[in-house]
Design a protein that fits this description.
The chain is α+β, with helices and mostly antiparallel strands. Helix content is 27%, strand content 37%. The chain has helices at residues 9-16, 30-40, 62-73, and strands spanning 2-6, 43-48, 55-60, 82-83, 88-90, 92-101, 104-114.
Length: 116
Amino acid sequence: MSIVWATAATSSMSRRGTSGTSSFRGSSRIRPRENAALLSRTVLTISQPAGDDGRLFGSVTAQDVVDAIRQARDLKLDRRKVHLDDPIRTTGTHMVTVEVHEGVTAQVKTIVTAAG
């Protein structure tokens, strides 16, 4: 699986002098909201082997999404905080709900592409 990310937040973070290496385990009440805002601006691209009809050989699971977030933003997140009704089994764009903290969620745009 290869993961690519792109977002406009990277340049604004560097202008403010902040790094993207924070953790969801911060004690501040503001940190979860900042992380949710950051994730809402993040676009994940996950490549998986797929057939000609766009169906994946396998699926994209909550753990795959967590791994992509960790690689893209260096944010630690439990896979149980990623809310997928069913694993993603088709290529295309999918909005994934991530619970950053109790009562704080973010919608992460996840693009699944065919590998190879």
